[in-house]
Amino acid sequence: MGKGASMSILIIRFSSISNVSMVIPLLDSLVRNHQDKNFVMVSRFFLAPLFEKLPNVKFAPADIRHRHKGIGGTLRLFRELKELYNIDTVVDLQNDFRSTFLRILFWFSGTKTYSLSPNKIEEWSLLFWKSKKQKPIKSLFDCYKETFEKSHLETDDKFEHLATNQPETAQKIETIYGEKKEKWIGIAPFAQTKGKILPLKKTKEVIDFFDKKGNYKIFLFGAGEIENEILLDWATIYKNVNAVHTSLQLGEELELIKQLDVMLSMDSANMHLAALVNTPVVSVWGSTHHSAGNLGWKQSAENIVEIDLPCRPCSINGTNRCRKNTFECLQKIESSIIIQKILDTIEK
Fold first, then answer.
1. Which of 93, 119, 175, 250 is the most buried (most CB within 10 A)?
2. Is 189 within 8 Å of 220 (Cβ atoms)?
3. Residue 133: is its pLDDT beyond 60?
4. pLDDT at 135
5. Could you tell me if 36 and 68 lie in one domain?
6. Triad 143, 146, 149: Cα angle to 5°
7. How far is 184 from 173, CA to CA, in rounded Å?
């Protein structure tokens, strides 16, 4: 790229959809507060639709499982980024081996670099003292904000929602699912770890309640082969239930989520996606806890469903095993509580 090209700020975040989506409210404020700057977001390639509506933001797709895998792949990604963009500053919001290696490569090439500060001490304290004795730790949004501040970039909390208005997408949704005449409820029953997933029997009780009422349409969100089979099975059992996993791409799913009256989600990506399009979320928490800083953007604590147990939280991200192997934190949640939360949210 020529020396006269405008400079860009590279932002790195490769991990889960949840963590990548949490960058967007801050990135939106960067665009508004620094209109003289260009931003490049490098993340996993399938997340491009999350960023396509942000002005002055270019998305750099990274194929970290194939083309950009390992040390050789990271070197390749570095060369591609250097060739395509005139990068002046690197902000690493990941701070793992891959992103650190990429950041160091830019540093050796004379680029200013900044990185996310680990929140490990506060996380360990939360796990040790549990939620009753510990104030909520810094949210991931705050951690991102502090990192941008280190790089002399100003953020704010004025983000409202992603722009998703695409007539062709809205028409596709109406063609597949019909005109919206009833209340639309989204349900995302799965998560990456067992400690975050409500027993499926309880989820089916929630579905059964709203399916029988007749004035609701339910949309099931999920991914993965086994999950897809379960969702398809539920869609055939119930009259007013649709499985959307194969019907829409990510950007189209966002348009559908925006049309929902409420989303029922575990501590998972769909909670954050719904927050990005300003859809109310009823979130269910098991081994993890919202005090660990992973609640969706401006989501209400009133819409959280959880059981207060002495052992909670036992994990920050859900990867720790339940010491009792009973998952009481999820088993003891009554479906009637979730149903009432959904009804209250819709009524508001």
1. 93
2. yes
3. no
4. 66
5. yes
6. 155
7. 13
Residue 230 in contact with residue 249, Cβ under 8 Å?
no
Q: Which structural domain, as residue segments, surrounds residue 265?
A: 168-347
Same domain, 130 and 172: no
Residue 80 and residue 215 share a domain:
no
Higher pLDDT, 4 or 321: 321
Residues 272 and 221 in one domain: yes
pLDDT tens per residue, range 137-192: 788 999 999 999 999 999 999 999 987 667 888 888 999 999 999 999 999 999 88
Domain boundary among 123, 150, 177: 150
- Kindly state whether residue 329 falls inside one of the protein's structural domains: yes
Instruction: Specify whether 204 is located in the same domain as 141.
Output: no
Q: Look up residue 298 and give its amino acid.
A: K
Cβ(8)–Cβ(87) under 8 Å? yes
Q: How many CB atoms lie within 10 A of CB 97?
A: 10
Q: Is cis: bond before 313, omega within 30 of 0?
A: yes
Q: Indicate if 126 and 177 belong to the same structural domain.
A: no
Q: What is the DSSP string of 278-316?
A: T--EEEE-SSS-GGGTTPPTT--GGGEE----TT----S
List Cβ neighbours of 215 (8 Å cut-off, separation of 6 or more).
Answer: 182, 183
CB atoms within 10 A of CB 11: 28
pLDDT beyond 50 at 2 = no
Residue 157 lies in a domain: no
The packing angle between helices 269-276 and 250-259, to 10°, is 70
Token digits of residue 330 = 């999820």
Residue 163 located in a structural domain: no
- The CATH number that applies at residue 133 is 3.40.50.2000
CA 300 to CA 293: how far, in whole Å?
Answer: 13
Give residue 11's pLDDT. Answer: 97
